[in-house]
Specification:
The chain has 811 residues and is an alpha+beta fold. 47% of the residues lie in helices and 17% in strands. Strands 1, 2, 3, 4, 5, 6, 7, 8, 9, 10, 11, 12 and 13 form a 13-stranded mixed sheet that branches. Strands 16, 17, 18, 19, 20, 21, 22 and 23 form an eight-stranded mixed sheet that branches. It has a four-stranded antiparallel sheet with strand order 15-24-14-25. Strand 9 and strand 10 form a beta hairpin.
Amino acid sequence: MLSNYLKLALRTLSKNRVYTTINIFGLAIGIAACLLLFRLVHYELSFDHYHSKFDRIVQVVTHDFSPEEGESHTPGLPIPAMDEVASKVTQLERVARVHSMWPTLTVPDGLGSKLGRKFPTDEEQEVGVFAEPSFFEIFDWTWLSGNPSVLNSPNAIVLNQKMAEKCFGNWQAAVGQTILMDGLLFLTVQGVVANPPSQSAFPFHIIASYELLKKNSEAYNYNPEWGSTSSNDQLYALLNRADQRDAAATVLATVGQDQYKSREGSWRRHEILPLSELHFAADYGGGLGTHSVSKSRLWVLSFIGLLILAMACFNFINLATAQAASRAREVGVRKSLGSSRGQLVGQFMGETTLIVLFAVALGTALAVLLAPMLKLISDVPDATPFLQNPMVWAFLAAVTVAVSLLSGFYPAMVLAGFQPIKALKNDITARTVGGVSLRKVLVVAQFVIAQALIIGTLVTVSQMDYLRMMDLGYQPALIYAVNDISSDSSSIARFDLFKRQVQEISAVESVSLSSDVPSSNNNWASNFAFRKGSNDAPFSTFMKLADSDYFKTYGLRFVAGRGFQASDTMQEVVVNQTLLKKLGVANAEDALGKYFRMGGGRWRPVVGVVEDFKANTARDEMKPMALFSRKTYYSTAGIKIRPENMSATTAKIQQVFESTFPEQVFDGQYLDERIAEFYRDETRFSALCKGFALLAVLISCLGLYGLASLMAVQKTKEVGIRKVLGASTMSVVGLLSRDFLVLVLIAALVASPLAWYAMNAWLQDFVYRTPLSAWIFISTIVLACAVALLTVALRTWRTAMANPVQSLRSE
């Protein structure tokens, strides 16, 4: 019986090649899209699950609020707060302090030499930490050599396998070797750990003793005071039991309350962030991994994938019900020969399942072929197993069953429900079959999804264009930034030489040394006071530490006064408009000559007011800013260059750097490229929207083409009569296309408000955003109508051009 069903199914599918091909390709495209998205979502949701104590591991974080600045979050804690957490929160079995860094390792040429082969860490892929031995009692790490106790020695360093092989060829050779870190510290490799999985929020390549951090506090910004909070200083802990999280949070909220000086209405408290939420907590940095992702975005992507698959299923239902009339006699014969309704349902469901199996096989092949392209829109590594993952096979099995039932059940019930007498008399037409209203609803649903995705694509592209064209308040073009310059005393002594030699390059216009460029992820802030005798302002100011050429190099615009004079330390201050606005100073000229105190330091005169510039990303509000000199904190060189022969200019800059700082690694990048990295997630989301919109349009077109083909066949005689009576080819094409255009317009009425709501919510993440223009919605409607008309016309044109004599003889 089963073999007979299989033969009949294959014969039927072979007989209707066009519709079979449309169904298989439509479903395959939807399945491939879902499979790739499943890979992406599963990868992101699997972060850190490999730790055996996963449900008990937490991070202690800091949550601030003030009426003037709103809420802020940081993964960092003051060093003394860490001590209080360890002694006060009894629900914690273990605590581990971690201080992150991105060092350069040098394998010395000889004993005591600071020159040799240099190995920088990549800020996105590799991170180093100073850690306590207890860190390895909380998290699972495989030790290839050594054990956590080696970190009790202040001169010890532990490498992961990848870094050990990079430095010494193989990890076994690394053990016992001397290595120079940041041109400052000679350390001994006393341990090697296995590479962490890619799904880790802790991809540490270098682990040094926490005691070493304490002994080199100035070099690595270790500040053991209650008033200092850095995101580099983090605390991880292990609960005694997973159900003690709330109890620990209650005690944790009391930590530091005697030390934190909160203004009226303001507060600071420490909270617990479970490891299960760490990768998705962008407010807290997402751990120390390569990236973080919001769960809401994962759910949105999953929903879009299901919509694409549903569209493919809609195609199958539409084509199957529209084609049902042509199989009426087959059903009548089978029922007359004794077939039951259940047997017919089984046969038709078998045909559907066969199509789905073909589609799953083709869709899986497409997904495997396109899998490497995921790296263009996500952080899923190429090495991540695909078909070897049992979850993928479970997903494919679930998709096969779900799509077979969703696509096949209704058409099978329609076909099996034909009355034998009417079926044998061929008294069943596409209209008497029923399902016309359902087909229209499904076509509308397809174009609702397609148009909503097109609108989403246009909005994201418009927003990205807006960000690229936005006035940043300075000129980032042709600025070449040299990053991560060491600020140890030896390097600081060579700053002036480096700057002077770079300025001698003919294509260089100006050079500035600073703590960072104008737009960055830096949020270094401090309390301050304005006007002598005043108390601290009710809000903090953010800081940029720079030399006197900063304003000229980056093109900052003054609204009053001038830049500060050249100095190695803070002597004069320049502020921005937002700081004065928050202080209630309406006229920028009134601020000149007033005195400004940073933290508990000395009073310094305000000599200039600059126009507001974007210190962070377009997601953030404009921040109050103070700019002043402090040479010991410079780590970036901004170099304004001329547009001619830029590659040769940057090569000369690198030569000067390497001759001036031979022990350091050169890291140069154009500023506009660095700014573009701020919006990497949005750029990827825009690319995803483009891809899904294209898939949605393609699947919709496949469905329209199939329906138009069936309609053209069913209306062959009508077309012949109309042409005999004088109808033109274009009028016949218009007649056959009209119903579809009406459905597309109805879809536009539904899709437009839904897309407006969704994209307006997405734009709320940006303080600076493009308006939702009417042209986006009008363009989408015009495009959808044009695509639908072209698709239908391509198929109906042949029918409209046919000889009416042949059309009238078709029945």
